[in-house]
Amino acid sequence: MKYSVDKQEKYTVLKLDESKLDATLSPELKSTFVAMNTEGTRNFIVDLSEVKYVDSSGLSAILIANRLCNDQNGTLVLVGVTEHVLKLISISQLEKVLNMLSTEEEAIDLVLMNEVEQDLRSEEDED
Prior knowledge:
Radius of gyration: 14 Å
Number of domains: 1
Helix content: 40-55%
Largest sheet: 5 strands, mixed
Order of helices and strands: EEEHEEHEHEH
CATH architecture: 2-Layer Sandwich
Distance between the termini: 47 Å
């Protein structure tokens, strides 16, 4: 599987450089998400702008990443979602479950805003 990783302090951007996210690639993508999450990443921005086709196993890998983020009070944001991929997400009724934004900058803003909210909640819990 071809992809690039840009690891920042509060989030990691994972850009898939594949046109298909299917059963041949999804196991590796799942293990990548699990490994990065184990290393402390709780916010993922996944750039799908090169992905033209996703099947149910690819969607499953994305949902695993979403669950890993949620379990850590983090955020998963999909950016660059192509028309076909969006259609499958809609058919699967996951548009309310998954965060999808147009640009990486919007995704970064969302992640950082959620991080500030988490910090504020933590401070309230300590009081």
